[in-house]
Amino acid sequence: MIKRKKEMIAMLLAGGQGSRLKSLTKRLAKPAVPFGGKYRIIDFALSNCSNSDIYTVGVLTQYHPLLLNNHIGIGSPWDLDRRDGGVSILPPFVREEGGRWYKGTANAIYENIEFIENYNPEYLLVLSGDHIYKMDYQELLEYHKEKGADVTISVIEVPWEETNRFGIMNTNDDFSIYEFDEKPKNAKNNLASMGIYIFDWKKLKSYLIEDEKDKSSSNDFGKNIIPKMLNDNLKLYAYSFKGYWKDVGTINSLWEANMDLIRDNPLDLYSKEWKIYSKNPISPPHYISKEGKVKNSLLNEGCIIHGDVKNSVLSPGVYIGENSKVIDSVIMPNVKIKDHSIIKRAIITSDVSIDSGSIIGKENSEITVISE
Amino acid sequence: MIKRKKEMIAMLLAGGQGSRLKSLTKRLAKPAVPFGGKYRIIDFALSNCSNSDIYTVGVLTQYHPLLLNNHIGIGSPWDLDRRDGGVSILPPFVREEGGRWYKGTANAIYENIEFIENYNPEYLLVLSGDHIYKMDYQELLEYHKEKGADVTISVIEVPWEETNRFGIMNTNDDFSIYEFDEKPKNAKNNLASMGIYIFDWKKLKSYLIEDEKDKSSSNDFGKNIIPKMLNDNLKLYAYSFKGYWKDVGTINSLWEANMDLIRDNPLDLYSKEWKIYSKNPISPPHYISKEGKVKNSLLNEGCIIHGDVKNSVLSPGVYIGENSKVIDSVIMPNVKIKDHSIIKRAIITSDVSIDSGSIIGKENSEITVISE
Amino acid sequence: MKRFMGIINLGENESKIKEITYNRPIASVPIGGRYRVIDFILSNMVNAGIQNVAIFTQGKNRSLMGHLGSAKPWDLNRKYEGLFVINPVLEPEDTIIRKGDIESFKNNIDYIQGSKQEYVLLTKSYMLYNIDFKKAFNYHIDSSSDITLIYKRVDNKDNRFIGCDNLTIDEFNNLKSIGYNMGNDEFSNISLETYILRKDLLIDIIKDSVSKGDSKYLKQAIYNRMDKLKIDTFSFNGYLACINSIENYYNTSMDLLDEKKYKDLFYENGLIYTKIKDEPSTKYTSTSNISNSIVANGCVIEGRVENSIIARGVTVKKGAVIKNSILMQKSLVNENAYLENIILDKKVVVSEGKILSGNHNKPFVIKKNTFL
Amino acid sequence: MKRFMGIINLGENESKIKEITYNRPIASVPIGGRYRVIDFILSNMVNAGIQNVAIFTQGKNRSLMGHLGSAKPWDLNRKYEGLFVINPVLEPEDTIIRKGDIESFKNNIDYIQGSKQEYVLLTKSYMLYNIDFKKAFNYHIDSSSDITLIYKRVDNKDNRFIGCDNLTIDEFNNLKSIGYNMGNDEFSNISLETYILRKDLLIDIIKDSVSKGDSKYLKQAIYNRMDKLKIDTFSFNGYLACINSIENYYNTSMDLLDEKKYKDLFYENGLIYTKIKDEPSTKYTSTSNISNSIVANGCVIEGRVENSIIARGVTVKKGAVIKNSILMQKSLVNENAYLENIILDKKVVVSEGKILSGNHNKPFVIKKNTFL
Q: What is the ipTM of this complex?
């Protein structure tokens, strides 16, 4: 191991199944779910790291990691294939005493203390692999230093009526946090945690070790570590984030976030300043035939369009046959939709083939998901 | 996933603890133990794959994989960082039904059937990550095809008096195997299995699925799969290997194999034809001072020698102080031996610092192991 | 086919394609919305398993070097072989530039000789096709000829191959003579300028020609020795285009709007690799109107596009109309501009309302970085 | 220091070091047993965090290109920046070679301008040192000067810096004038030819000089403008060597046998990176006799070696004696040969019993690939 001091390294939690995504995560981890035509969900956190000059990233995997491992590789798409540091995939493993799966978010970090200590960081950035946003973590670190905080938690204003879906930070005027309210019925504040933390590493480490000894703990940051720190009067600050942020944890929010990309929205994927990187497919430009029509949609490499595409997001390699219509839908990589089919308000997952004459989904209904 | 047909892919078993190596494998997997000055044990199997033009290799990890993962990366040292295939690290993982650790050698392959099927191979090469040898697996495959075998097992002649330490293949004149004798008291043959198998993948797959259903099975190739296949009259052939081969499973055999490199032996590490690759250290050439003496030894980058080195193997970055003597010993990376010390018949593990005036090990005794 | 190395000789005639080769060789002319001309021959080589490719340039290669980078997209970023670009050497003492390419081959003969392959596939970049070279290799190895030359029998009626080498072949497929294709005959056997021969023979030809001084060009040197060599031919039947004039460049681009030719060139015997640009999805808005076109990633199409090739990162604003045109990367066409039969080189900006119209047989070319 | 880009200008005077620069620029002269001259400046740059380096060559660069490869050892194989080698462009219509380097800077000014860094570290390759450039950068940014020039105050008694630029500095560290070091004075302020300046200023100087035609060389163009610019100096105090003559090359190599200088050059402010060769351990036999030498990996030493530098892959057979010599890579010294004060270039073979002896002040150089 190369041991070289890094000011801050990132740990990216990517082990979750994401069971609310149902059949989408049957055989792949949630962070590996295709998103926005070209990406997988985890690309946003990885690209944010790279764009923020954080070149040492541990990715904690556990659930169906094959596709995720294959996607990340050594991190070349994000320029994270570095001589010192770079991206490391950290699955659970067997020790002399036996194997231990990751029990909760805090435990996953606990089990990798040895990895973190190799870089002897002052600060630890803890991220989730399942959010869609662009953020400069260096600015977060600057804020953390300015405040002299032990922990900084990035928060976003949510509509008051939705506060009961989030972990809410109750803050003083100076943004110091005095209370953490998990999914409150009557919220005192509307600043929701984005699951992005900067910790003073030495302090976090001692809390992780303490928490591990507590057999009743669920070893989770939100449920155990943060409340304990608040209780001990550590300095916790909220960092108020203003841009686009979306947790794509449900079928509905995943569909919504895809549709957001067609509308004008603050998540500008076309700017050169803060590119989102992904593994690139090896395919020619897409082809639209004489009969093909495309409106208000995203298309990608290798698509062949003979039919009609409207308000939809198409991943690479999608084929749309003659007289077929795709409306208000998300079509994942290499889907083949044969002739004379109608797809409305649907998510079609990778490699699915839709027979001629199929009718899938309905207007004004729930989102239909079709998977293999 | 890129799905492209490969004739043969390799699966490399690297999950074992190697508990007979005692303190050497306290915090790293056996295949990651340093060997021969420049290498780690697994480098031999990986280099053999690359030199045999096998560019799709799955590495099955389980025990303390951090260092091993870091060492392998995406396989660049072995030229295994390929667009299609290359090296994939395959840890145990969690499914919808929960997590499963690898139970035995056969089970580890069973758990990765999905990975293997991505490449749709005709043949599967199964290797161990803990043997020192050079072998052209293409020749093994040619032999397998010529024999029309279902399974080919590479074997080596061992002295008759040692047959009770090995899995012995009892063969007919045409090298077809009629019986497998695990550590026989009265061996009928002296051909020991080297733990290198080529299987017809489709046949193996059905045996793996069957074996998994059998709750009493220990899911091991040697104990379960091979005997079952023999019982079913499948065509199993032995391939008689003639070169140098060493299982470095014990402290003694590890020390011996290191000493073999100083003697003239058939494992020529200096030939350009079949290079053994490893991660290369970033260090200047070694330096021998006016007082330094070196005889009959292997030295590496970054060593600084003020003392006397005889019949020893030194890894990169070793420092030997003034008036110190190192004899018949194996010194692993970045060990510092201060002045006026004497080291005999010892293995000193990575990063250990030996104080001035220490006396370690004795002639004609067991090998002394010093670790952190 | 590890027995073959590839050599691409970029000494190509640019006299009829000057409009787009001011600052680049033909090899790096953008084509098909995301490729450079050289991508096709390089991809054919690596798809056939060639792992060692030398490109002999004629200077003017910054655009080419930028495109090839570390050769990773072609999987030619190999440890010991891979891609090697050889530039003509100019001694400071030289006061005249030597004409021809054979000098450069002579100067680098030790590189060719030192490669471990026995055979050479010698070719150029300006012919576009998707071939399975393995078949041609096997044909050559099974034959007793010195050289195998690949050709295609073409119909001359659309004058696509004027100026190419025209082969006369006997009944045994042997080459009788080579001429200049004037397009007078109904059919011609057009040379792909792709030669398969033993490396030794190539070296002999170069040395003999240099010592005799009978030719400045390697091709001529081979032809001069035709009577002493047995030259066999191998027929290719797929889609073939030749980029040796601006008309051919335009017509070849338009060919790709035929789905059969699109699939033939981009998929038939393997994928075509190119430099990665991390472009996002292409966005079509509610005002876009697209028909019979191929469009690369990273574009924003708000206007009307018909029978055109749109490269990566192009923007077509509202009300703009693009017909029968080729837009190279990062062009910007502003509101209500009208383009017909136009080739925009890279990064051209067309201002609002501008009307540009070329002749269908002689498209009008706008130079790189022009603002108009 | 992502605000800095590096430019290495290889227009270096080879007139006194012709013996080892027939086929290579000074930048790729082998040194220190495993390095090339350019490794030191490149490593200094990347150790300071520079991620964008342009090397301007003067042709004759095949050995350099082979050494740099994809720039992976320097972690400069980056997606969008990294290492870029710029060769002088020669238009086929040119009939004379233009002298000087400023032409090449002018031709590539768009590359410099297009880089996103604000500052440039402009330097050459022939000075060897291990520096923390971050300190110099900070000094420059905090100062109000236009250019900061790095120098070292050296003792002239061993005549190591004859012909270098000699700075006259006022009491405020500002540059007063530049002369040619004759070695007459006891001490001299030797320029490292390392300039820190704003990129804009460099571009202005190049453009202004080309349009005025006042200099063929960039260095001269800067000096011509000294009266208009505020040039500050920054003092370096570590080990410095200058590879501008064969004597300096020899003496610098011998310096490395001093453990303090060895550590200073190879470790002081960061590691030195170089091309990876995968050489095995160096083997010493029972007949070897080694003293006061540095020896790279992959050697087999059976003879006697004293006060010498032995590069990768050298073989010294039994009874051979090497004294006060430099053996470049893959030299072979056969039985009972005797070498004293000799420089063997790469792959020299010295036959059995041969005696070669140079003068200590004027070592004898044997050309690459010689058999004698």
A: 0.88
